[in-house]
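for ur thesis appendix - galactinol--sucrose galactosyltransferase. copy paste whatever u need, i formatted it the way the template wanted (i think)
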Amino acid sequence: MACNRFLACARIKIYWMAPEWGSSAADLPHETQFLLLQLSPNGPYAVLLPLIDSAKFRATLRPPRKGKDNSKDVRLRTESGDESVAASQWASALLVAAGTDPYDLVDSAVAAAAQLSGGAKPRLSKQLPDFVGSFGWCTWDAFYSQVSAQGIDEGLQALKEGGVPPKLLIVDDGWQSTDLDPALRPPSSDAELLQSEHETSDHVKRLSSVAANGKFSAVDAGMDAPLARPEAMASVIANLRERFGLEHIFCWHSLYGYWAGIAPDTPHMAAYDAQLVWPQPTQGVLDVDPCFAWNCQVVAGVGVARDIRHLYHDMHSYLAGAGVDGVKVDCQSTLDMIGSSLGGGPALAAGYHAALEDSVAEHFPGNACINCMCHSTSDLYRMTDTALARSSDDFWPRDPASHTTHVAVNALNSLFMSPLVQPDWDMFHSQHPAALMHARARVVSGGPVYVSDRPGKHDFELLKRVVLPDGSVLLAAQPGRPTADCLFADVMRDSRTLLKARCALSPCSCLWNEQVWTTNSSGSGVIGIFNTQGSHWSRLRRQFVTHNNGAQTLTTEVRPADIPAFAAAAGGSENGRFVMYSDAQKAVWVVDAAGNASVQLSRGESDLITVVPLTEVKGLCIAPIGLTDMLNTGATVQRFSCSAAGNNGTSGASATASLCGCGRLLLYSTAAPAACTVDGAPVEFEFEPEQRTVSLMVPRTDSLECTVSLEFSLAA
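the 3d part is after this line
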């Protein structure tokens, strides 16, 4: 392999992948599933995508073995995952493509790889679930598996009283009926660790019924409720929906029932004719994490339904009948090892995903499914219609080394995943040292925004900057992805690069230190900038590590051209100029498409830059920045227009902005308006001549929508 630099996405656990950078074959990680090459400093680019052949053989890339392989060779490993399934040649093992635009190249190549490997459709042809536009609360980090009807009620009540009512509820692990295997003999004295895992971990429990446990036996059932008490899930769901105005309620389950599958010997599960299998990890997985040779499922075995469609039908019929709207489906990539005696992981995953997609379509209208723990290509390339998938390892609230890494990993993984699905950047805590960084990251992700706060542990001021009073969130129009200038820079370890992420709000946004970009529907863009240096996932130590505790204050340049829509033809700006607004600095800059503004961040700090095309009419230059109380400032502007006005020899201009939300509206304007109105009613405003900004307060309306008009008298 010969290149200037590369970006790889490779597994770090059986469930998850993370980015890696380098310039030689020796830098390549095991289990690489995506490899983007920068052939020279300014392009062109090439991408290598290992495929799944004949639905049975999954390929990955690995580095050369020291002393055995040519040091410049990238090695292709093909595995079925079952020793009885073998072949000597493969028609579709690797896709290679090249181009001058890395984003177009990745979009087209990943879509082609998915079509060859499993039939996953491109994201743009799928239905995005409408719950993505609703603020959510997930029970996981609030209660872990100690969740109950009473606890959920307390959590929702606390958020409602704080003025940020969730419209989405995710009931995570802990609602199902599960049990341990019955003891066959007393544990031996030298097996204390195994016994401890057996007694304390949910990962060796099996599903004993598709119905909920006793913690959901009444609307006020708590942790003291006997687990065997008859469930009343429908009553619990109806009560929560009525009391809190919930629009979307999801429940968690494993792709194969529960962590250790389904119980083969319980009366409620007899219909599924489960067989107990002892998974064997592939060599590729063991190269990434040798501990999986003795993980819980390997030691305890997994109960596998002989007909997974039967299980899904019964589980989903039960949930839908109880009033549940969708499912979060976890543990997906575990199939890579569960299939070791069932024809192999890739083949087993094909059948499971086909069954899951069909059942979701039948029971949960609107494509209401979140894919999770799913970063094997055995899963990613089989997401035919489901349109949402988690894009990183979990949010770990008590691991300080994980938080900047979490943002960086989501942004880089999104480059690979967003051609097929909308990446979900996971939950976070609003009351947390890293909360502001996480909140800004979710704004540019383009995906769902949900927290997992414990009841009473909230930062409502921060949440109100993300959530509108009606429980909705301001979505970007595209998934957030890294800007071109940080694709091939190690934004966690090189001590010099900020991540920038861009996305389009009403067309765009971006991060730096890592920069991530995206766009909004109104034509503005947002660039997220994050200092993610100092911590990373160590593939050697297999944990998050802090390798530099210093402040590491870094500087980057942010420009409209970081957003591709604004780089081409000045992005539609009539005069080729743009206004940029910094959420952290509260600063306003006017630049041309190639111009820039300087942003400085210390380790763990972040900023959001709203980018708006400048409009010019009769010498008046104006741009609607948006409602600055919201983190996604530009997305509050739904439409904007400015036109010449005046008669009887006078000269003037009129500007109109349609808004969603309330609070302080900020506009850039080279002249002070003569008058401002909100829905036709005159309002006071302030004009700041040095910064050339107009600001006014927009009151809350029942619909959260209003029209602001500004009239200008201009010199003839």
